[in-house]
Design goal:
24% helix; six-stranded mixed beta sheet; alpha+beta; 357 residues
Length: 357
């Protein structure tokens, strides 16, 4: 178990700031996710925590001991960390047992103690029955569990994971998410997890740091980030969102390029962006907040994914109950009830009137 403190950590490559003044205190036993699009700096930040990269400025401390900064740099092997990479990185010529035992053999630990520790961690990662198998005889998910067991066997204070599930298929990713979280709870180990997958961040994290272009856009619990995104980037990256340009007039938001408006009781004035999550819009009988024409429907098994024209081609994505697919039809007029909304001041950014996914 471990605490981590990062203060004004910055990394610059060739005059490009990859991470800009990142500051955070990570508590003992906390599961933290660094979330963001490719190239946002999240892996660079993880590698600075691990000691594979040196910050350009700022300090990093583990358990109150500075490991980077102020003329101090502790190498990775002395930081008490375990790390799992995107690629499985298992030794192809070693069986499961020997792969997991490798860090302990490097430490010249007694054989009987190695046996005890390796078998204990193989039980944790559900691989005890495969200890004599070679990596070529394992599935992708099993190989990733070998890498996880190897990272945990030396009882690190801190576990770092760099997109460890991105090479797995969808069903394996889902099962591994729950396995990693279960292991983390069982061992009560501090985890810093890097991903671009919002579902991984939402299902596994205690806190999420959403990063864009090296800058933290929002740091909060998954629930807070989803329900109360601080800006349009966060609203779009975590979940699905419709962005509609509008103008606040007399307690309503008039949606541009349409004849429609919705009630508004907030404090913003002038041009705004009305943000509606597709699952927060219901197709209802009778009067609603908006009306439109169904232009497209996609049956996805668990939902009916619709595109509704509010007028003049202003499209709204609506996620409806899957059973409505049998009752609704293309070009049908429908009423829409808004259950929740977000409103931002219009900052003039692009893609405001597009359905973003």
């Amino acid at each position: 178990m471990s605490t981590i403190s990062l203060h004004n950590v910055t990394k610059v490559y060739d005059d490009e700031t990859v991470i800009d003044n990142f500051t955070a205190d990570i508590k003992d036993g906390e599961f933290i996710t660094l979330l963001g699009p490719s190239g946002c700096g999240k892996t660079t930040l993880l590698r600075m925590i691990a000691g594979f990269r040196k910050p350009s400025s700022g300090t990093i401390a583990i358990d109150g001991v500075t490991v980077s900064g102020d003329g101090v740099f502790v190498p990775p092997e002395k930081r008490g960390i375990g790390m799992v990479f995107q690629t499985y990185a298992v030794w192809p010529h070693m069986n499961v047992f020997d792969n997991v035992a490798y860090p302990l053999k490097i430490q010249k630990m007694p054989k009987d103690l190695i046996l005890t520790k390796v078998r204990a961690i193989l039980d944790v990662v559900h691989l005890r029955q495969y200890e004599t198998r070679m990596p070529s005889e394992l599935s992708g998910g099993q190989q990733q569990r070998v890498a996880l067991g190897r990272a945990l066997v030396a009882e690190p204070k801190l576990l770092l994971l760099d997109e460890p599930l991105s090479n797995l298929d969808a069903k394996l990713r889902e099962s591994m998410r729950f396995e990693i979280k279960e292991i983390q709870k069982k061992l009560n180990i501090t985890v810093v997890y890097v991903t671009h997958d919002q579902i991984e961040a939402m299902t596994m994290s205690d806190r999420v740091f959403l990063i864009n272009k090296g800058v933290v856009q929002q740091e909060a619990s998954p629930l807070e980030i989803y329900r109360h995104p601080v800006n349009q980037f966060v609203a779009n990256f975590v979940g699905k969102a419709n962005f509609l340009s509008g103008t606040v007039e007399n307690g309503r938001i008039s949606i541009k390029n349409t004849s429609q408006s919705v009630p508004y009781a907030g404090n913003l004035t002038g041009d705004v962006i009305l943000t509606l999550r597709p699952e927060n819009i219901r197709i209802v009988e009778g009067a609603g907040d908006l009306t439109g024409t169904i232009r497209m429907m996609y049956y996805l098994g668990n939902e009916n994914d619709c595109r509704v024209d509010l007028g003049n081609g202003v499209m709204l994505r609506v996620v409806a109950d899957p059973h409505t697919f049998d009752d609704l039809s293309l070009d049908q007029q429908v009423s829409l009830k808004i259950q929740d909304e977000l409103v931002y001041q219009d900052d003039g950014s692009d893609n405001r009137d597009k359905i973003l996914t």
